[in-house]
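Onboarding guide, step 5: your first structure request.
Type a short instruction followed by the sequence, for example:

Predict the 3D structure of this protein.
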Amino acid sequence: MTSKFFEATNSALQANRGLNQKKGRYSATMATNARLRPLVLLLGLILALPASAYEFPLSPTAIRQAYFLGIRQPSLGTTFLAEYARKVPNLKAGAFTSEVRIETAFTDVAVYSSRTIGYSAQDAVKDFFGKPAEFRMYLDICYMTNAPPNAVRIKVIQNRKEVAPQSEDRSAYYPATDEYTFMPSIGEQIQLRFKADKIDSSPLTIRIDTPDGQHAETEFDLQTLR
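The system replies with structure tokens like these:
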């Protein structure tokens, strides 16, 4: 009888210990979840934020961000800069397709930092903060063989208004070939320069008209490009 009593008591104690262990694990899990919940919410808020937009003038923080982006690789490559280029598939000459590229104050800092040895974030802030800058646009317009010079019309539109460049350079576009091959001009290479503060973070539309009646346009979403 006594033996059975001790066995029953021992079983009850083991069951109680098991229950307490489960409660302990449950409490620890709940405590961990409680600690992680604010972090999860914070991560959700970060992911919900829109990508950084075009801005000028650059703040010291933006300059440092461009600097650290630039020093990740010794020469800032095509992966980053490709975001700032658009093909214009409607305008072609043979195998060559028109393209528009832009450069901003932010890309200037990043590219310069990537190519300058011994350069620091403090140097970048000193060199670029509060300094004037340009918003540059490069257009390789391919549309016909023996293209006439200075004949392509370009309009840059933002907020339903045309934005006039501060300066413009043009030259005939001769496609790259080897030294034994000559190809006539197939279009124009155009460089437009704007004051950086004349551009904002609204969508930027480029309209292109060629003398042979072709029309094309492309757009840069400056809410997602810095």
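Each response can be followed by summary notes, for example: Residues 99 and 140 are 5 Å apart (CA to CA).
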